[in-house]
Amino acid sequence: MSRELSQTDLGKHVFVYYNLRSKVWSVRYHGKVIGHTDVLRLDNVILKVSQAGRARVLRDQEKNVHAGAYGTLTAYGDLLGDTWGGTAITYNPYKYHSFVTMLNKGPVYGADVACLEHRRVAIYGHIRFDSPE
To answer: From start to end of the chain, where are the E strands?
Structure first.
């Protein structure tokens, strides 16, 4: 059973994905969902898309959790503050193999910081455009 995020969750290396059913960000720690939130910040971010999961979406036309962000949880909810600016990114399994920038649709694989607010994601600092694989 998940719970609300708390101050004790700050500093944990987590995996975050947008929950299409609940319309919130789900936060996993060691494989278990530890909470949900509308707004959060991650540092040292790696953006990951499972190509096998994406292939299942394309084949079965059913949603599954196969893409999200790994990083250190540094803020959530009201602790986040202003998140305007940065480079907006998106992901759509029917259009892209990876996360892409909203501006030019170029692939992006990570960043120093990501702010996730409702369905909007913005990345800041050094942005990694080259695949780590």
So the answer is: 3-4, 13-19, 24-29, 32-37, 39-49, 67-76, 87-90, 99-101, 107-108, 110-117, 120-128
Span 10-67, pLDDT tens digits: 999 999 999 999 999 999 999 999 999 999 999 999 999 999 999 999 999 888 999 9
Rounded to an integer, what distance in angstroms lies between the CA atom of residue 11 and that of residue 42?
A: 9
Give me the sheet containing 99-101, strands edge to edge: 3-4, 32-37, 24-29, 13-19, 67-76, 39-49, 110-117, 120-128, 87-90, 99-101, 107-108
Whole-angstrom CA distances from 128 to 9, 35, 48 are: 26, 28, 12
Q: Tokens in use for 48?
A: 């990951």
Given this model, what pLDDT does residue 83 score? 57
- The structure's pTM equals 0.90
